[in-house]
Structure formats: structure tokens, C-alpha cells
Design brief:
It is a single chain. This protein has about 270 residues and is mostly helical. Helices cover about 75% and strands about 0% of the residues. The chain is built from ten helices and no strands. The protein is globular and about 60 Å long. The chain starts with 15 loop residues before the first helix and ends with a helix.
Length: about 270
């Protein structure tokens, strides 16, 4: 059954404790897990500061740092923006629950391999490394499926929220899917090169799409946050806020195009 329940995130004047109590159970889980993933990223930034070593390359502390922060922020963002979507409560709970579990799988596998001083992706050197690498690839595929479900929902029925939120959500999910597809392409190309004996080429092949992948992932947070901030912090007319959001979409789209061009030309 589709729900029209107002998003808990929209309620003004609440303390953090009261706002947390207003969330659905699955949203509370996402907030907790997302917060822990962000903390994990920050902790590993401290590990890097103490332990040192390279920041780039297939084996570095960069990966648990960036993936912990990125997946944590993305999980928090998706749980928030999903509260504006008109979907059934069961669908919401299943999609967000699986998404949170998948985020833990991805960050956990990457972090495990960082501590083992082994590459996390495209690593088929041992049976254990292969199992971790393939589980990350399968998890990435599941991410695409789950977020596609939410993206479709944002287009099937107009999302709730203040002026500009519907456009921000639809554009944010569309750009996010671009990032997910670019990630899937990186993994697919790398797996083919790895299985044909070109391991070093497999690691190098991901560089072209990394800028596009990184920039695209967070549109689903940035654009809805713009719509929300204008509703919460300004007295602008609705048509003005709609135009600002539309401009933000164009700017973010230009940033995505620039990231793609930079990756291919660098």
C-alpha cells in the first residue's frame, strides 16, 4: 500500500532525539549504520595518518576511508530522500534494509582487504581474494537494482516535499544511476582484463571512469538538500525555488560532464 506519510525530516523545530523517534524503524537502522560507516571512514583516516603508506593504488588506506565516508553519506542520503517517495511501507522497508546491508558488505570487504594488504577489487590471486572480489561485484549489482527501484518510484508518482523537491529527486536519482552504471562498467572491464591475464591493466583501466563515478554518486544528496534548504531557510516564492533547483540540476549536470571529460582526457 502506498503511503502519503509526511517525511520526518521535514519537521522543523525538533530536537535530534525527537526527530530520530519520528523515523520509521528501517530509517533508524539506516541512520545508525550510515553513521557507523562514516565513523569507520574517519577512523581509517587516522590509521593512514599513523601508519602512512601510499594514498593511491589498489592497496592503500584510501579505500576504507573513501568508501566508508561515501557509503555512509549515501546511505543517510538515500534513507532521507526515500522518505519523500510515494511507495508502500513494505517496499520501503525491504529496499532500505537490503541497501543498508549491502553498504555494510561493500565497506566491510574493502576494509578487510585493506588490513590484509590485498587489493579488494579485481583480485583473483587466491580463492579467498576471489570470493571477496566477487562478493563486492555482486553487491554492486544489487546496489544498482535497489536504487533503480527507488528511481523508478520517483518518476511513477510525484514525490512529496517542498517546491523543487520532485525535480531534485528525479534528477538526483537519474545522475546517481549514471554513477552506478559507470562503476559497473569499471568492474566489468577489470574482470575481463583480470581473467585474460592482464592484472595491472585491470587496475589501470578504472582510472578513466573514476571522476564520473565519484561526482555522480552524490547528486541524490546535493540536489534535494538544495530544495530543502530553500524551503527551510528562505522566504522565496515557490516559482523562484523551482528555478533555482532547475539551475542546480544544470550546474550538477555540467559538473558530471566535466568529470567524464576530465577522466577521458587526463
Amino acid at each position: 500500500m502506498t503511503t502519503n506519510r509526511a517525511p520526518a525530516y521535514r519537521i522543523r523545530g525538533r530536537t535530534a532525539h525527537r526527530a530520530l523517534r519520528a523515523l520509521r524503524p528501517v530509517e533508524r537502522v539506516c541512520v545508525l549504520v550510515g553513521g557507523l560507516l562514516v565513523v569507520s571512514g574517519l577512523v581509517h583516516l587516522g590509521v593512514f595518518a599513523v601508519d602512512g603508506g601510499p594514498w593511491t593504488g589498489p592497496v592503500s588506506w584510501r579505500k576504507p576511508v573513501t568508501f566508508g565516508l561515501s557509503f555512509g553519506v549515501t546511505l543517510l542520503a538515500v534513507a532521507w530522500v526515500a522518505s519523500y517517495l510515494r511507495v508502500g511501507e513494505r517496499t520501503r522497508a525491504v529496499v532500505l534494509g537490503l541497501f543498508a546491508a549491502d553498504c555494510v558488505l561493500e565497506v566491510g570487504g574493502i576494509t578487510l582487504q585493506a588490513w590484509r594488504r590485498r587489493p579488494s577489487h579485481l583480485n583473483m590471486e587466491t580463492s579467498f581474494d576471489s570470493a571477496v572480489s566477487m562478493s563486492l561485484a555482486v553487491g554492486g549489482g544489487l546496489l544498482v537494482v535497489l536504487l533503480t527501484v527507488l528511481a523508478v518510484a520517483s518518476f511513477r508518482q510525484r514525490p512529496a516535499g517542498p517546491a523543487g523537491m520532485a525535480l531534485a529527486l528525479r534528477a538526483g536519482f537519474a545522475i546517481l544511476l549514471v554513477g552506478l552504471v559507470s562503476g559497473a562498467v569499471m568492474i566489468a572491464r577489470g574482470v575481463v582484463l583480470t581473467r585474460t591475464g592482464h592484472q595491472l591493466d585491470a587496475y589501470a583501466s578504472t582510472a578513466v571512469l573514476k571522476p564520473l563515478h565519484g561526482v555522480s554518486l552524490h547528486a541524490v544528496l546535493v540536489l534535494p538538500a538544495l530544495a530543502w534548504l530553500m524551503a527551510a531557510r528562505t522566504a522565496w516564492r515557490e516559482d523562484v525555488r523551482e528555478r533555482v533547483v532547475r539551475g542546480g540540476v544544470w550546474v550538477y549536470g555540467a559538473a558530471v560532464a566535466g568529470a567524464a571529460a576530465w577522466g577521458f582526457l587526463a
